[in-house]
Amino acid sequence: MARIRPTQVADDGFWDEERPTRRTKAARYAVPVGVAGIAAATIGLVPALASSGDPDLPKISAEQLISKMAASDTERLSGSVKITTDFGLPSLPGGASFSDLGGGPGGDGGDGSSAAPESKLMELASGSHTLRVAADGPERQRVSIIENAAEYSLIHNGDETWAYDSKSNAVLHSTAPKGAGAKEDHRRELPKDLKEVTPQEFAKQALASVDDTTDVSVDGTTRVAGRDAYELLIKPKSDETTVGSVRIAVDADNGTPLKFTLTPKSGGKAVVDAAFTKVDFAKPGAGTFDFTPPKGAKVTEESDNRRGAQDGMHGKQGKNARDALSGLKVTGEGWDSIARLDGPRGTTPAAPGKGDGGAGKEGGAFLDGLGKKVTGDFGSGHVFSTRLVNALLTDDGKVFVGAVDKDALVAAANKAK
Question: How far apart are CA 232 and CA 220, in angstroms?
């Protein structure tokens, strides 16, 4: 057991049903991973999140607070979430960043791809973003990312899902086949990655890591989005993990996580800070989940033919990915877990082969610019570091990834040689 110690968005952050959902071309939007997953803030979050005095709440133990969170059945809410991420992703040659690999400028290629959710995820891996969220049970959700008077929205309403990118004025629409159950068709709910950028989803993932490798305590009280909350503090005992602590502000009334802060062991700004700035637990109005494509928008229907074409295009890639993941191994436990993936020998750019014409040296120089070269009993490779997740890519094609330090990765590679 863990050791326990004693359409249209109104100015107030909520959807206004009285306002039209149409957007003008002046409302252009530049929208925001995820990491293993995910995902996902800084400690200098906006003043709106600052505590106005710690509330005096009844004493509660960590076990009781975790139980309160587990028993929370909040399915209806609306509000505004501020998420700031600072993974410390390295820059690519030429000054580009990894977040540039996600969405961004460009047309939709004629197939609605600029409105596809996966094109937006990488932009959430850095910087600050404002999200408007609403939920009315499992059949209705809405997430909008609002920046620079523009938006990217995902709306799930019954059997329909809409994705809208105001920057390109592109819309992607899908309808679940008749008789399809929620488990049979993923389009009946919002994409998992975009659902998991709220304090509730971050908290679920953190609580899954609580075991005897973790210290858990209630560390006082606070106020978030005008609501009284307890602060749950989660601290790994491990010396090797890069995670310093996880702090979750839990609504004192209904047990809903209101704020999530992940701080690295190295200190400084938080890696992830997601918090409600406004929240209302009343049932959102039905019009919140209505969507009508704006005038002039290019609407792409995600038809069975289109999905079939996508499946055919990605079929070989998908098979290769499945084959690669079939060799995935996990070593270590808890916060010290390291994922190992073995690729074909000599597949990395840093592994020159006979007759490669110097390509190996060029590839090695490229990797040198991104990561740090390391050696050990396993041979040689490169470590690519962020403020939280590190990865070791060996010259013979093995990959070791975890929220652990460089020495732990090298030790894992030495043991696996």
Answer: 8
